[in-house]
Amino acid sequence: MSYYPKLAESFSELFASVANDRVLVLGHARPDGDCIGSQLALTRLLRAEGVDAVAYNADPVPEALSFLLGDVGIEKFSREALDGSSLIFVDCADEARIGPKSSKLICGENFLGNIDHHISNTNYAHFNLVESDSAATCEILAGLAFDFGWEVDPVTAQCLLTGIMTDTGRYSYAATSSRVFDLSARLVECGARPVNTAQALYENEPLCRLELLQRFLATLRTESDGKVGTGKLLHKDFLDTGAKYEHTEGFVDYTRSLRGVKVGVYFEERESTVKGSFRAETADYRVDTLAREFGGGGHACAAAFSTDESIEDIEPRVLAAVAERIGKVESDPGE
Question: Domain spanning 207-331: which CATH class is it, in words?
């Protein structure tokens, strides 16, 4: 059985291109499970095939995902890391996703590979292995590894399974397919343990995260006749609780979980920027295009953006855009 026959030629050519190169495996800033899992898994797979590969990220590995770090780590990205290396991006819809400072450093470099599952991907590399029907970049990497007969050791399998588990919402999102379950079963056969991911991510909460969640839940409200759910955190909330930005992972899902809500929006005020996240009931609402209006991107049902505008300015504009989108979808559901 072949999981990704349409990507086979591009992947083969990509691998042939890096055989004698030093490769930097880059992931997006503020990395999540799929990003970290993809970076570590691809680095490990390439090294096992004799390729000189190193993973870099603008931000540190979140504490909850540090259990994935074996004998391969993820280093802090810097100009010195480039040194004429070829770049392979994972889980990045565009090159800017690696972070504002990092993206400036890579101008003019060799954008060799782009492996991703975002519908908003801009196909910015020489080899673009983009499959928007996949639930996770780790799903694509797992499928390609098995298609090419590469050995997947237990640590690599754990990285891939974690990326799949997190980006499918523990196998509950719409993109969760029979292929996802088949690949997950094969990864378990390779030595991955779902319980390890579950305990590390969902049964190991620091108190500061729950204190932050308490503050966030207190802001939840609905608008547009209950069809828009929204909540926010201010920079002061992080200072008061001692929580980190990584501790808000999954908070946006509460905005969409409210009964009757079609699109949920979460606002996060940081020291000098505001991050916005969207979650939609169905792909009809195309929140990836909504996010693009504010400089972001993502998936049809899950997307995000970051802006230098104040939360007071951006919040009403975003909520108005969401209400307009819902109105258009409901007035012409077949559009």
Answer: alpha beta
Q: pTM (2 decimals)?
A: 0.89
Give, as one character, the DSSP assignment of residue 131. -
Q: CB-hemisphere CA count at 13 Å for 65?
A: 27
For 178, phi then psi, to 5°, come to: -65, -30
- Residue 335, pLDDT > 60, answer no
Q: What is 5-202's CATH number, 2.60.40.720, 1.10.357.10, 3.90.1640.10, 3.60.20.10?
A: 3.90.1640.10
50: left (phi over 0), alpha (psi -120 to 50) or beta: left
53-77: average pLDDT: 94
133-159 pLDDT, tens digit each: 999 999 999 999 999 999 999 999 999
Pairing of strands 274-280, 74-76: unpaired
CB 17 within 8 A of CB 45: no
Q: What is the residue-averaged pLDDT of the chain?
A: 95
Spell out the residues 6+ positions from residue 50 whose beta carbon is closer than 8 angstroms to its own. 19
**Domain ranges (residues) in the chain:** 5-202, 207-331
Dist CA 136 CA 141 (whole Å): 9
